[in-house]
Amino acid sequence: MPMTFATDTKAEAPLPAGSFTYNSPDKVGLMLVNLGTPDGTEYGPMWRYLREFLSDPRVIELPRWIWYPILYGLVLTTRPRKSGANYAKIWNREKDESPLRTYTRGQGEKLAVRLGDLTNVSVDWAMRYGNPSTRSVVEKLVSKGCDRILTFPLYPQYSATTTATANDQLFRALMKLRRAPAVRSVPPYYAEPVYIDALARSIESHLATLDFEPEVVVASYHGIPKPYADKGDPYQQHCLETTRLLRQRLGWSEAKLISTFQSRFGAQEWLQPYTDKTMERLGKEGVKRIAVVNPGFSSDCIETLEEIAQEAQEIFKHAGGEKFAHIPCLNDSPEGMEVIETLARRELAGWI
Ligand SMILES: C=CC1=C(C)c2cc3[nH]c(cc4nc(cc5[nH]c(cc1n2)c(C)c5CCC(=O)O)C(CCC(=O)O)=C4C)c(C)c3C=C
Ligand SMILES: [Fe+2]
Ligand SMILES: [Fe+2]
Question: Considering every ligand atom, which ligand is closest to the CA of 83?
Fold first, then answer.
């Protein structure tokens, strides 16, 4: 008797969970991916979000046997409450969700409209941690018949802690599928003219609304631990190149536009100069008026709305500063959507 295998496709057996038939082939799924965010500010959702995020070995590289006792014994017993209180300060109460989710949804919906002429492209948006999960969105796209997926990690500067782990998660989702789609990933865009130009226009138009002219504009990027950069993560170079190009485009001096790194976590050294220490230094040196922009964040989020617009402002003013402005991220503004649409169309070449 011939041997039969569970993988034989001729039999009329029901498809196992996680498998899909194609309604019509040659559809392309375009998935925007951002970092992720908690479902609520209470202890439970904060704990679940932080556990998923901080269990990622791309984010915390310590051996698990060292990290897990610290994570479960210390971090997850204290940080959910502390971070939850900070999220509560910036929560979108109308939609009962974090601003990061609101803006990422806005980017997805607006991109779908902008790409309306591409009838074989289905646009969606997902998170690396939390909801909507990368896996649920991949399954949705595949069930719609997408046999190709273009994933768009919404990080202008590459880091293994963000871009690479977003792509890891996509491939983890594909591992569950018998018939996996072909995939492409949008490369980092830290030096793309369309991105630099969008940032410059956004900065110029925001500064024009202020009742003061900043003496210094601080480009504050999320940090990473210094050892990650020392071992070859190109993130710092990408950030510094964005600032250099932005300076060139705006015609500003090195003293007018400076780069700093924010959001330190844990005891090790992170990329320097630190944003909070720079706020203090500028205030103490007699600088009275500054503006802060966050070119590395495609959406405003806790790190920009709480840590910069609130905390950094307080530090600067406490140190003697007088005027402070936070320049919003590109979000789903026309300038921001121009960047996303241009890169998406370029990376879809040959598929549409
Ligand atoms: C070791 C820890 C962390 C690394 C490395 C890290 C890198 C990194 N993160 C972003 C972007 C975002 N981070 C956000 C929040 C956030 N980041 C960390 C830790 C690390 N990030 C934590 C613990 C948190 C949660 C908030 C808190 O408890 O402080 C967010 C905002 C999410 C939101 O819901 O608003 C973004 C965006 C980048 C770009 C990056 C490395 C390049
Ligand atoms: Fe972070
Ligand atoms: Fe922070």
Answer: 1
Contact 260, 278 (CB under 8 A): yes
Q: What angle do CA 170, 176, 177 make, to 5 degrees?
A: 95
| Ligand 3 geometric centre to CA of 345 (Å) | 33
Nearest residue (by CA) to ligand 1, atom 26, is 83
Q: What domains sit in the chain, N to C, each tagged with a CATH number?
A: 27-189+335-347 (3.40.50.1400), 193-327 (3.40.50.1400)
% of the chain surpassing 70 pLDDT: 93
* Interatomic CA distance for residues 330 and 91, integer angstroms: 19
Q: Check if 220 has its Cβ closer than 6 Å to any atom of ligand 1.
A: no
| Distance from C-alpha of 243 to C-alpha of 253, rounded to nearest angstrom | 11
Q: How many beta carbons lie within 10 A of that of residue 281, not counting itself?
A: 15
Query: Worst-scoring range by mean pLDDT, 24-33, 81-90, 232-241?
Result: 24-33
pLDDT at 203 over 50: yes
Q: Name the pTM for this structure.
A: 0.93
